[in-house]
Amino acid sequence: SNSFCTLLAMAEAYIVVVNNCDGRRYKMVMQNDLGALTIVRVKRYLHSATGIAPNAQVLTFNNVRLADDATGSEVGLFDGAVVFLDKEPDVQETNDVHDPLPHRSSTQHGRSQASNGSCHSTAVERLLRDQQGQLHEIRGLLERVATGATLSPVPATVASPLERLGRNLDALAAELKLGSPIELDHNSTAVVPFASPRDGSNASLLLTFDRATNRLYMYSAVLSRLPTDAAEKVELYETLLEGALLGREMAGGGVGISTQSQLVLLSISFDMFHVSDAAVAAAAAPFLAAFDHWTHKLERFAGL
């Protein structure tokens, strides 16, 4: 619907920056188009977030080093794009944001040579610590075998969030009998049509995966227009808050209001680090039942 398109168009755009020095991730949110975002501005943000001076930062995207004066549109940044941060070795850090090595190509392929400096050293130290820990565990296991102790079964390899996301989407497609897999677009969003369990009317279920937090959001509009009368608005808010008490009518999720888009959204989220492969599919039926409950309950507010 137009309301959904308006809501999605107004959604905040963001990029994710992965610090190769320590593995930390930073989410930079923009209210405006990412095309106008300058790399200089990204470096200033990262300076406050990481403490690495702008002139010592090396940013790469799609294996290309980003020049300070480049813009998001010039380098192809999009909503949810992942940029990598390395620290330039042997550079006296200042707040200047010009290229510290003007004779190097600004379109250097592969990971920046900065990764051979302090970030690389940090990574090597971390790897050595991990290997030492593994050796300690192996010695402990050998000692237990030598003494005849019973070994616990080795746990299976833990699936990555993206692997678990794919399995959950496949299970959800089967649960909803879609006949085709659910695929996320370049904004990590999918619109899944479904028939209302109550009256068979057409509705849309939206799925959005946030790569920065590895959470999958499932949501749908239960009211597409807010009442204009102040008293009716108060009654609507009271109705929603009463239903949200302890989440008893929200199928384990929650409800939110967009006054600009005139929408009331029912939503639930899943942490792809910790849920089972069938968690989203298992939540689908209760969620759709809650959707029916709230669309029916809020019908009287639709025309006010």
TrEMBL record:
- Show the InterPro entries listed in the entry: Tir_chaperone, Ubiquitin-like_dom, Ubiquitin-like_domsf
List, as start-end ranges, the regions of compositional bias called Polar residues: 104-119
Output the GO biological process annotations, alphabetical, semicolon-separated.
Answer: protein secretion by the type III secretion system
**Stored Gene3D superfamilies:** 3.30.1460.10, Phosphatidylinositol 3-kinase Catalytic Subunit, Chain A, domain 1
Q: Which residues form the Ubiquitin-like domain?
A: 38-85
* Superkingdom per UniProt: Eukaryota
**Feature: compositional bias, Basic and acidic residues:** 92-102
Note down the stretches annotated as region Disordered: 92-119
Pfam name, any one: CesT
Q: What is this protein called?
A: Ubiquitin-like domain-containing protein
Task: Write the lineage as a comma-separated list.
Answer: Eukaryota, Discoba, Euglenozoa, Kinetoplastea, Metakinetoplastina
